[in-house]
Design a protein that fits this description.
By secondary structure, this protein is an alpha+beta fold. Helices cover 60% and strands 8% of the residues. The chain has helices at residues 2-7, 13-43, 46-53, 69-79, 127-141, 145-170, 189-219, 222-230, 238-250, 265-278, 280-305, and strands at 84-89, 98-104, 107-113, 120-123. Helix 7 (189-219) packs across helix 9. The protein is elongated, with a radius of gyration of 28 Å. The two termini are 52 Å apart.
Amino acid sequence: MWRRWVQQPQNIWLRKALFQVHLWSGIGIGLYVLMISVTGSVLVYRNELYVAATPKPIISTASGPRLTDQQLKDAALRAYPGYRVADLRRSLNLDEAVDVQLRRGDQAKNRLFDPRTGNDLGEAVPLGIRAVSALLDLHDNLLAGSTGRTVNGVGALAVLALSATGLVLWWPGIKTWRRSLRPHRGVGWKRLMWELHSMFGFWSFAFIVLFAVSGVYLGISEPFEHFAQRVEPLIQNGDQILYWLSILHFGRINGIGFACAGPGLCDQTTKAIWALFGLAPAAMFATGAIMWWNRVLRPRWEALARPASAFPLRPWAQ
């Protein structure tokens, strides 16, 4: 069995069984993997996105004295009757628009008011900032709070299992394993999809395992913390290992003692690497979906679309 596995594993029954597990697991969590992959790569640049989405401060150009806090609160309540003022914040520049937070039951509004006229100047939190925050909440919590975070942990476990079965299926045999490291010309587009799928899986395997293991920790942290406490007498700095696990999940290595000690080329290079390999699961989903279409769905579709005359009549129907 081992000799066959090393030399030519394609006909081993265990590999065929793992292929079915890999196939249907990929189909089951494919869209989830696509979403997590794309949002994670985008959020590598979340700080840059927040900066780009932050507008310039609004400075009052009106004449006259500045309104007191109470006068601004009264202006806000006139503009939004039925609400109450939960908070009022002024900037260091007293001529800058004042942030007023209003609440009515479960509803909340953050509005900007002119410090001299009391006019409503619009949303305190712009649409771009809210969009990036929503994207972050989608990636971290699936927009479902702690429940979504737990589901993310389970999803990361599924990705880890998918990676393990994929690694087993990637092995083509001792004589041809190098062919799976890159695509080849003239093999046809169906074969090309398989080669791309295998290549993406091989070169991104370490990153995908890192993302998956750290994703399990971020979603279901209690088992990791208990394990770290148990092995603390044997392995020092267990908490530090968990800390680095979360750091490496997001690629936040800038300014924490790593080689990249500040903004610059090194920091941007690291982010580009994390964003690129973060898209690898999405690329594998795309190539896997195309292969599934070619192997399973397309023959069935063509069979259904075939006219009835193309099927031979049964003897009793002739």
